[in-house]
Amino acid sequence: MASTILVGTQWGDEGKGKVTDLISGEYDVVCRCQGGANAGHTVVANGHKFGLHQIPSGVMYDGVVPVIGNGCIVDPSVVLEEFATLDAQGVSYDNLKISGNAHIVMPYHKDLDGANERRLGKNLIGTTRRGVGPCYSDKAARIGLRMQDMLDEKIFRQKLETALLEKNPVLEKIYDLPGYTVDQICETYLPYAERLRPYIIESSRFLNECIDEGKNILFEGSQATMLDIDFGTYPFVTSSNCTAGGAITGSGVGPKHVDRVLGIAKAYLTRVGSGPFPTELPQGDEIGELLCETGHEYGVTTGRKRRCGWYDAVIVNYAARVNGLTDLAVTKLDVLGCLDTIKVCIAYDVDGVRYTTVPEHQSLFYDAKPVYIELPGWKCDISNVRSYTELPREAKDYIDLIERLSGVRVSIIAVGPDREQTINRHWN
Fold first, then answer.
1. Rounded distance, CA 158 to CA 143, Å?
2. pLDDT digits (tens, 9 = 90+) for 87-103
3. How many whole angstroms separate alpha carbon 358 and alpha carbon 339?
4. Sign, Cα dihedral of 408, 334, 264, 279
5. Residue numbers annotated as active site
């Protein structure tokens, strides 16, 4: 078994949690490499539905070691909330490992996240307001606090004091918000440290030792290619690298140990928050509303209604190039069974120039007009199909088109939310 990186190819919410859960049992370790509690992933297993944000989906499998890598940011309160959720369902998290180098989301990060969104007004980014951007900003500015810092009260207090010298004036003088004291934060966070101490490790060392022992790792990405800080629709992006390269820097495992890169693509397209969306169906559009309700397109983290549109092959082609995809998993194919005809964007028209991959310059992408082809729908329920050969001809034609336009084979097809509602076409 080879180690694999799993990435989203669109604007997130592609069904990465389901696919991760589906294949996690094939791996010894599942490692989250970036993002934090802003990355909701839904897992449906054994009749139970879980909305996880911090803990990797691999926690659902006995014997699989879930790891929160150094590239992640951690909200200790969310981790403990998820402990309680898993306890209630009898799911063990004893194997969980958390990188000591992962940065901690502090209360002032959440305050600053919300205050900055309010300041932006109609130009808001559409963040989850979980403190992710400010936390990553502090990491880059070298005033962040890491999980290992919580384990030593003296160090934690010293670093926190330094951070508050900068944060309190911003909170108080710019945003008219109350500041924090070192004691105030320590009162909450030092007990977190004691609860989480058994799980905090040197993650890069651990992961590489696993590889040396012949074990295989699934690197679980969060968010998606078009939300990547470098390759996404900047500034309407997240604050981390959520392409395949982020799995390397976010885990401390070298690229020579990765053999496959599995991209997840929804059979249509959604987006949460602000930013360009060439194939978006207008608000109130009958088909857009139908996709939203049939596909239950509401954010796991925020509950916000997702913007819906047609499948954009240009974006997935771009994701294939940026990530070096070897395989694709297409999710929610069953949702399209409610449509008579289905459109696919095969190119963009920008002032008479045709693009088959995402133009790098913002001014071009923002003016892109989708070029569509139209395919017949299959108008039937495929949620019970378990073999590719059993799919309606129209559904197979749709998958074949996705393959041709992306240049990547479709190895997994999801036809419903449950683990069992999956067609394994080439994944082995």
1. 11
2. 988 889 999 999 999 99
3. 27
4. positive
5. 13, 41
Establish if 128 belongs to a structural domain: yes
Q: In this structure, are residues 250 and 44 in contact, taking their beta carbons and an 8 Å threshold?
A: no
Query: Is the residue at 131 inside a domain?
Result: yes
Confidence class of residue 151 from pLDDT cuts 50, 70 and 90? very high
- Residue 235: its H or E element: none
Predicted local confidence at residue 263, as pLDDT: 98
358 in Cβ contact with 326 (< 8 Å): no
Q: What is the mean pLDDT of residues 162-174?
A: 96
Please indicate, yes or no, if residue 145 is contained in any of the structural domains: yes
Number of structural domains, the chain? 1
Give the model confidence (pLDDT) of 187-211 as tens digits.
999 999 999 999 999 999 999 999 9
Q: Please check whether residue 98 lies inside any domain of the structure.
A: no
Element (H, E) at 398: helix 393-406
User: In terms of residue numbers, what domain contains 146?
Assistant: 103-196
Identify which has the larger pLDDT, 326 or 121.
326
241-278 pLDDT per residue, tens: 999 999 999 999 999 999 999 999 999 999 988 899 99
Burial 261-286 (b: 16+ CB within 10 A, else e): bbbbbbbbbbbbbbbebbbbbeeeee
For every residue of 137-204, DSSP letters joined together read HHHHHT---BHHHHT-HHHHHHHHHHHHHHHHHIIIIIS------HHHHHHHHHHHHHHHGGGEE-HH
Q: Is 240 exposed, middle or buried (0-12, 13-18, 19+ CB in 10 A)?
A: buried
CATH number (domain holding residue 156):
1.10.300.10
Q: What are phi and psi of 327, to 5 degrees?
A: -145, 155
Find, among 427, 126, 51, the residue nearest to 276 by Cα. 126
In the predicted structure, residue 45 carries a pLDDT above the cut 80? no
- As a whole number of angstroms, the longest Cα–Cα distance in the chain is 66
Mean pLDDT of the chain: 92
For residue 275, give the nearest of 362, 169, 375, 203 by alpha carbon: 362
Parallel, antiparallel or unpaired: strands 29-32 and 217-220: parallel
Its pTM surpasses 0.90? yes
